[in-house]
Amino acid sequence: MFTQTLSKRVLGSSLADLLAGPHGVDRYTEILTPTWTRGEARAKVIDVRRTTPRSVTLVLAPNPAFDAIGGARRAGQYVNVAIEVNGRRHVRCYSPANAEGMSHLELTIGHHDGGVVSSYLYKHARPGMVVGLDGVGGDFVLPTPRPRRILFVSGGSGITPVMAMLRTLVAEGHDGEITFVHYARTPADACYRDELAAMPGVRVLHGYTRSGAGELDGRFGPQHLTAAMPDADAVFVCGPIALISAVREHCTNVHAESFVPPTIDVPAKPSGGRVSFADSGIDVVDDGRPLLEQAESAGLSPQSGCRMGICHTCTRRKTCGVVRNLTTGAVSTAPDEDVQICVSVPLGDVDIAL
After folding, report:
1. Do domains 149-258 and 273-352 have the same CATH topology?
2. Which fold, 149-258?
3. N or C: which end of the chain has fewer CB within 10 A?
4. Preceding amide of 22 cis, omega within 30
5. Which is it for the CA torsion 264, 267, 271, 272, positive or negative?
6. What's the half-sphere exposure (Cβ side, CA atoms, 13 Å) at 282?
7. pLDDT tens per residue, range 193-205
8. Alpha-carbon gap, residue 184 to 95, rounded angstroms
9. What is the CATH number of domain 273-352?
10. What one-character DSSP code corresponds to residue 40?
11. CATH, domain 39-137, list 3.20.170.30, 3.30.1020.10, 2.40.30.10, 3.40.30.50
12. Rounded to two decimals, what is the model's pTM?
């Protein structure tokens, strides 16, 4: 223990970093063990399970640097996961399914057609693989104190933050009433079926939208609400936008999160202004698309995650110019403001520190 503590202090000292310059200690220790980095949060994949035809479950063991960037996660929040695919770094946000306070992270990732990261992990994830971690966020969390009567609703891979909440409540010994409604294409596509069937204190209702006999027929509506819990103190829903809209229509006190990009109002015509990615010395003519897409078309590789204005991974400093946020409609006019380039379009000449 003394030796380990001394090693951490020596490797973490500014002197060691100076002597290891110009790349720093992490560039050398990662050669021995990729997760042995003090400045970069990473995790080793310690288990891989493919229990449905369209998903893969990864169990990750984060390194100590994850705690330094806010690794204390609340059930329902997401983490930013970075992987390299064909020489290019990609960042996506995923909601772990494990209960609060666990030392590991459990990610169940739905395989989406055309999804670069989800397809890669579904096909190639293996124990020993190392991924990057970049922060924790999201406000889709359980309130304190806990509501007495809780209705959970999820669709597809929206089950993961709900599973984190359910597991947390069970671990806490919650003695209130809990009902969980989950929608999947077929019984084979429904993640965590066996665990949910055995979960104490949780009433589970399945609905299958393509084939299979579940407890519920069709899609969420008044009949499903009556069968589940019509007088819940709080309703938590995660899934496609159509499901969230249906739940909001028939329920009150709804907490929602969607994993589908919102419909954004892209301008019919580009501004015709100049977009300068100042740090790279690249200028382009605005073509009307979000700044992230224009940067990528110009050969740049800025970090990004959700690509829908949720995770803030793509945030960059706008040094001058005017941009509009496509999800909120907010217009940024002041110099030296941070903007999310995945959902921001120029309104005239714009300079971005990228």
Report:
1. no
2. Rossmann fold (3.40.50)
3. N
4. yes
5. positive
6. 16
7. 999 999 999 999 9
8. 18
9. 3.10.20.30
10. S
11. 2.40.30.10
12. 0.76
